[in-house]
Write a structure and sequence with these properties.
Elements: H1 3-6, H2 9-16, H3 32-49, E1 63-68, H4 74-85, E2 89-94, H5 106-115, E3 120-125, H6 130-135, E4 141-147, H7 153-167, E5 174-178, H8 185-196, E6 200-204, H9 212-215, E7 225-227, H10 231-234, E8 240-243, H11 248-252, H12 259-266, H13 270-273, E9 281-283, H14 296-299, H15 306-325
Length: 327
């Protein structure tokens, strides 16, 4: 009997015994066992994806809505494919061209979607905290697809899963996060996830993009978190280098002297990569601006697992859909 016929209920039932979340809003309250449960279910989803015509009935007759108030390609498309493979009906709703433009509130929108029988809402919103607000007003499961500069838990889980698959474990690794940390929802969720799984995290950025107000949120894990503004020093003996997208609006706000200055001091190039361990992994949440955050030769080197991050995205999101709404 193929997985398409039997679903996943037998193969992941043991993992569900430890799962009691109906929403995925961030990783700051995840336990290690919960992260490991996501990984175990993702392993099973990878088996499904390896089949010639992947299809399972876990969300059959269920509706998954992608409610995106900001543009997205990777996250929205990844969730849409994940839901379709799991036999769900999928609907994409954007802020433009919808009732939002007519003044409908977020609460009104999610309540309307719930009234239509929606089982899961994947939400991206420009305002930090919007998915939390929505989750307090509906029983429908909410998965945070990115809220402002606050959190992006599904991308962080993709990153953690990619590291675990390539290096075998996350415990004890030195992970360096480089770039616009202050405004990065990916970095914030990754800090919680990496520390939860036992990694030592070093943050490296211009001081205008990483200041004390940011670090106050992580006081409870400060023993696992280090700040080193000098990139060459930060990269010494690194097992993983996670670069972040440099957003042009930061330069316009005067937070950076120039792109050329940033490249000079913070670009990951072949010379700097040699300061890390020989087989250090290079990650980037995308989209990559080659020649700015990472030199072209490094982004296409054997150290880079950027393509694998994208490939793992569908399986991680299938796992989360299964955990919050599966049969």
């Amino acid at each position: 009997m193929t997985r398409q016929n039997q679903g996943l209920s037998e193969s992941v039932s043991s993992q569900l015994d430890t799962w009691n979340r109906s929403n995925v809003l961030d990783l700051d309250d995840f336990s290690r066992s919960e992260v490991e449960t996501v990984f175990e279910v993702t392993d099973t989803m990878q088996e499904v994806l390896s089949e010639r015509t992947p299809r399972i009935p876990d969300l059959q007759s269920q509706t998954v809505v992608n409610l995106f108030y900001e543009p997205s390609t990777r996250t929205r498309t990844s969730f849409e494919r994940a839901a379709k493979i799991m036999s769900a009906d999928t609907i994409n709703v954007s802020g433009s061209g919808s009732s939002v433009e007519k003044g409908e509130s977020l609460i009104d929108t999610v309540r309307t979607l719930e009234s239509m029988g929606t089982r899961v809402i994947v939400m991206r919103h420009r305002q930090a905290g919007a998915p939390y607000l929505a989750s307090r007003h509906v029983q429908t499961s909410i998965i945070n697809g990115g809220d402002g500069a606050h959190a992006h838990p599904t991308q962080a889980l993709i990153d953690l899963y990619t590291i675990r698959n390539k290096l075998g474990a996350i415990e004890g690794l030195k992970v360096v996060i480089v770039g616009d940390i202050l405004h990065s929802r990916v970095a914030r969720s990754n800090i919680w996830g990496l520390v939860c799984m036992g990694a030592k995290v070093t943050l490296c950025a211009p001081l205008t993009l990483l200041h004390n107000d940011f670090l106050l949120a992580y006081k409870e894990v400060e023993g696992h978190l280090n700040v080193e503004p000098e990139l060459d020093l930060a990269l010494e003996d690194a097992d993983v280098i996670m670069t972040l997208r440099l957003q042009e609006e930061r330069q316009k706000q005067g937070l950076l002297p120039s792109i050329r200055e940033y490249i000079k001091y913070y670009q990951i190039n072949s010379e700097r990569l040699r300061k890390a361990k020989p087989h250090a992994l290079l990650l980037h949440p995308g989209p990559v601006m080659e020649g700015i955050e990472i030199s072209t030769d490094v982004s296409r080197s054997t150290n880079s697992v950027i393509d694998e991050q994208v490939e793992n995205g569908v399986a991680i999101r299938m796992a989360l859909l299964h955990l919050v709404a599966g049969d």
